[in-house]
Amino acid sequence: MCGIVGIIHKNAGKDVNIGEQMTSMLQALKHRGPDSTGYAMYGEDNGNQILRFKVAEAADLEGSYDIHATIKERLETVNSRLTELGVKVVNKQSPTEYAHRYEVEFSGDMKKVADFVEDVEGVEILSIGNSLELIKDLGDASVVSHQYGLNDFSGTHGIGHTRMATESDVDIRSAHPYWAYPFSDVAVVHNGQLTNYWTNRRALERSGHRFSSDCDSELIAVYLADRMSQGDDLETAMKGSIDYLDGVFTYLVATKDQLGMAKDVMAAKPMVVYEGEDMIALASEEVAIRTLFDHRIETFDPYHGEVKVWQN
Amino acid sequence: MAELRKETSQEMGLHEEQLKGRTQKKFFSIDESENLTYFHSFDVDTSKSATIDALDMTPREINREIRELMEKGIGDITVDNPMSRHGVGVGILNRLNLTFSDSLGYFGCGLIDGPNVHIKGRVGWSCAENMMAGTVVIDKNAGSTFGAAIRGGDLVCKGSVGARTGIDQKGGTIIVGGKTGAFSGFMMQRGRMIVLGDAGMNLGDSMYDGTIYVGGEVEELGVDCVQGDMTELDVRYLTEKLALYGMKSPRGVEKMQKHVSGKMLWNYANLEPNEKKLIL
User: Fold this and answer.
1) Which chain A residues are Cβ-neighbours of B125 within 8 angstroms?
2) pTM listed for this prediction
3) Nearest chain A residue (CA) to B107
4) For residue range B79-118, what is the model confidence (pLDDT) as tens digits?
5) How many Cβ atoms are within 10 Å of A173's Cβ, its own excluded?
6) What is the domain extent for residue B98?
7) Which of A32, A282, A300 to mutate to test the interface with B (most CBs of B within 10 A)?
């Protein structure tokens, strides 16, 4: 059934520990999906691009004798390709053997970078952005946050997901959030099932979009990317998705300075919203939002076919 | 149980053999005393009070604590800090004054038969599902499938509720102070629903009995749901019922719209009362 959360702080600068807040909310929703946990969080923009990518699946480490050599080889190929394109890596972090975070200086076409890097077998770009950091891995929120050191992450907003796999495999590739390739700083999490996934996927692929997984939720990210590439703002694109997507869904989308929510016309998937003066928090269940407060709060359910967008 | 006409019930495809009440005889024999009371139903004294601080308790621990207090005869229980937990206050089968000082999560107060519950906050999905009797009053908003399949009692939300309110409602009364979402009253079979605000699309879709009153705008009626005529009896009923909970229709009950089934379930109108019970 999956659980999704979102949080956005208004007028709070970039110094809020949203990593800890997101972990707290996601851990409260562990019962909705123990397979994997993902974060898309928005931190300080220092002018550089943040490149999050993986060179293997977590499960690959146990499935092959020469995987360590393969990972090393893939990483070297990625590095050489970045150099070839003139991308200057100013900071490298490797939370795991297979997941990497590069801070890069580059003013050229990041889509070209993404395509060239993803051309390396087994390599997948998780996100590119000035402030977006997209992290996802197997396990619950406490495992992933500890593994990637997320409990100290400062920023303004974020979205997250706990996954119960129904439509595709239990792996990082199928975990949420999804980056809305090729748009910097756009990410999506989804709870539900889309029944016109393959039809719409084929149409989007024919128009040049790329899908990195077989997970139906990725369609939302690609659709929004397609609409925004044609000039729609986020809210307009999201409103269009209500008719475009068939099935049951509640999804959250985040950009550099916005957080949006959309719900299908059947209102078949839950969402609870807390709207305070300084903070908006959303979750599949109120129990997740309550972990942020030690006092009573006012919450509500959005309605069928409703789209809401908040600005930080 | 009255003997059913073989041909009617069998033609409906409900069963293959003629029903003669054997099930009822087996499970509700007057000679077997345990069949006359509910399992885990207690005699309580509402003048005896107790408070539970649920801050660090699991839902199971909260429910067990409520039961143990009822076993001791305590009839007025307050639960502090429920922290929006799921499945709390369920399966209470006797009179009890139960107060939650804050919000509940999903499936709160489900499967109850008799208690008077006051929730001083919000409730998540499926509040009071399958409620048989008693009252549940929520001060704030409620999630979807509010009062699913209730058979009796009064379920009151003073705020707004989500989608599919009263889905499969089989009796009792659901009152909503604000608006209600899509597919409210879906497959409603009996009872009353009173919505003082607006109602979302497909109101009363596939309903085949029961009444839905709406004080605001109806986005769209569902299949088989039609507008009925408000009578003096409706106005009197609504006035008195709402007064019980200190509620009023913003435009006056006389201006509320009444909605009923426009088309009975196949052969439903021709059924004997006992046969209807079999369906419901």
Assistant:
1) 270
2) 0.86
3) A285
4) 999 999 999 999 999 999 999 999 999 999 999 999 999 9
5) 16
6) 38-279
7) A300
Number of separate domains in chain B: 1
Flag whether B228 is in a domain: yes
Query: Which residue in the block uniquely carries the two structure tokens 């009353």?
Result: B192
Q: Residues B109-153: pLDDT tens digits?
A: 999 999 999 999 999 999 999 999 999 999 999 999 999 999 999
B162–A298 CB contact, under 8 Å: no
Sites in chain B below the pLDDT cut of 70: 1-37, 264-280
Which residue of chain A is at minimal alpha-carbon distance from B103? A296
Task: Tokens for A242, please give them.
Answer: 């209500």
Is residue B167 in a domain? Answer: yes
Q: Is the ipTM of this complex over 0.90?
A: no
Report the sign of the C-alpha dihedral through residues B244, B246, B251, B252, in that order: positive
- Give the E-state strand segments of B144-250 in sequence order: 154-157, 170-176, 190-195, 211-214, 225-228
Domains of chain A: 3-43+136-311 (3.60.20.10), 46-129 (3.30.70.1110)
Note whether B141 contacts A301, CB cutoff 8 Å: yes
> pLDDT tens, A44-101?
888 999 999 999 998 888 877 889 999 999 999 999 999 999 999 999 999 999 999 9
**Partner residue facing B181 (CB), from A287, A289, A303:** A303
Let me know if residue B253 belongs to a domain. yes
* Beta-carbon separation of A300 and B141 below 8 A: yes
CB contacts of A300 in chain B (<8 Å) are 122, 141, 159-160
**Residue B180, in any domain of the structure:** yes
Q: How far is CA B191 from CA B174, B187, B211, B235, B275, in A?
A: 8, 12, 7, 16, 18
